[in-house]
Automatic annotation (TrEMBL):
Keyword Cell membrane: yes
Keyword Cell inner membrane: no
The name this protein goes by in its record: Sugar ABC transporter substrate-binding protein
Cleavable signal peptide: 1-28
UniProt-listed InterPro entries: Bact_solute-bd_prot1, SBP
Organism expressing this protein natively: Cellulomonas biazotea
Length: 441
């Protein structure tokens, strides 16, 4: 397996990470492991498309929000393979620091999963092994969901990751509240105007504690996940092709901000939205307190289990169309693994029909293979089928400094949308330029 780690990109990124407190000095100069006799670092063509399953113990790290999905995959793999995976669940807020410290000390696990919007930064700093030959060698390589592969692809075209957990954004509505408000409970909004009208209709019920809509008004990650699709559905882009320029001052982007500003003025946004950091972002809808909002598909079943009769559709654009943010986590083999062939065995199995259907789809998750989105398990659940079909056209923005520009607390993106929707400062152009300044550092 080739490991075409870029010395210049890694050194530049390492210095920047050191400034950020992650101290990943010299990553690209580090070897990915020793040449052992167990096939761990054998070239891809010698280990075959399935890698090596010889009883090796592998280590894996993943974020706490994905614990359920990770445990299901690891348990199924361990029960059917000689190799055994030891899973460590990392608190979400601790992941960046732990990965940075481990990378500095050459102590990353064999298998490393990360948020798709953070992966370009990790790849640029040499944290992963190049798996281009392995991924391209799969019979179904062209069938794998592209967003999770693209997020781990460097500017030279080297591929490092495959889908681990797929999370998409959807529009949801409370059918019972819609019926009370005189709306058709089977029809969600098909454009931004209908979204506003339907939210205001629910608000007009005057039910204590119930609001028309809700959003993470202090959560950058929440709003890239749920607002970017409206811009895509309107035919516009959110970033330049190289990920260095923000395009969030377009007419369609402005229409999104104006819609929420109007909903705020109408009192149709739930109390607490302005302070919402994402920690309780999905709770109001699951509690039956929200009429309609953008939502993560992974939280839809929790709302359903809580007794909400949920309607689901794609996130609409200004004048129609629909799109979704293809999020979640991708996984690759770290630069420090001494068992690359064995770790690839896990990844090859994870993307196989067996795992995608009998573990992922069976558990109500979205497969990472386009041809498997319409599967027997989804056919039994209209909600799952709707969400799976949306995933086929999902988008994932790729930028090395995405997290700094958008997800970080107090990021310029947070400043932009708060200025546009709460404070109405009229500074979208200037705030958009501030995002570009971070992306293009």
């Amino acid at each position: 397996m080739s490991k075409r780690l870029s010395r210049s990109r890694g050194a530049r990124g390492a210095a920047l990470l050191a400034v950020a407190g992650l101290a990943l000095t010299g990553l690209a100069a580090c070897s990915s492991g020793s040449d052992d006799d167990g096939g761990g670092n054998a070239p891809a063509e010698s280990v075959g498309p399935d890698g090596v399953d010889d009883g090796t113990t592998l280590t894996m790290w993943t974020r706490a929000p994905l614990e359920r999905q990770a445990k299901a995959l690891v348990e199924a793999y361990n029960a059917s393979h000689e190799n055994q995976v030891e899973l460590e669940i990392i608190p979400n807020d601790d992941m960046e620091g732990k990965v940075g410290a481990a990378a500095t000390n050459d102590e990353l696990p064999d298998l490393l999963a990360g948020d798709v919007v953070r992966l370009p930064y990790w790849v640029a700093n040499g944290l992963f092994t190049d798996l281009t030959d392995n991924i391209d060698g799969l019979d179904y390589a062209d069938d794998i969901t592209r967003g999770h592969v693209d997020a781990g692809t460097d500017p030279d075209g080297a591929k490092h990751t495959v889908p681990f957990v797929t999370d998409i954004s959807v529009m949801v509505w409370n059918k019972a509240l819609y019926a009370e408000a005189g709306l058709d409970p089977e029809k969600g909004p098909t454009n931004l105007a209908e979204f506003q009208e339907q939210a205001e209709a629910v608000q007009a019920l005057g039910k204590p504690g119930v609001s028309g809509t809700y959003y993470g008004g202090n959560c950058g990650g929440c709003l890239v996940f749920t607002w970017f699709p409206s811009i895509w559905a309107s035919g516009d882009e959110v970033l330049s092709a190289d990920g260095k320029e923000s395009l969030l001052a377009s007419e369609s982007a402005q229409a999104v901000y104006d819609t929420y500003a109007a909903l705020n003025d109408a009192g149709a946004v739930g109390a607490g939205s302005k302070e919402e950091t994402g920690a309780t972002w999905t709770a109001p809808f699951s509690n039956g307190e929200v009429g309609v909002m953008q939502y993560p598909n992974t939280a839809v079943y929790a709302a359903k289990e809580a007794g909400i009769d949920v309607g689901v559709t794609g996130i609409p654009g200004v004048d129609g169309g629909q799109s979704t943010f293809l999020g979640g986590d991708a996984m690759g083999v770290s630069k420090d693994s001494e068992h690359v062939a064995q770790a690839w065995n896990f990844l090859a199995w994870m993307t196989s029909d067996e795992a995608q259907l009998e573990v992922i789809a069976k558990n109500g998750e979205v497969p990472g293979r386009n041809s498997l989105l319409d599967n027997e398990y989804a056919q039994e659940d209209p909600l799952a089928l709707t969400m799976n079909k949306l995933a086929a056209d999902g988008r994932t923005p790729v930028a090395e400094y995405f997290s700094e520009a958008f997800n970080a607390s107090g990021s310029p993106w947070v400043t932009l949308f708060r200025n546009a929707t709460f404070d109405k400062t009229g500074t979208v152009d200037e705030d958009n330029d501030a995002i570009t300044a971070v992306l293009d550092q």
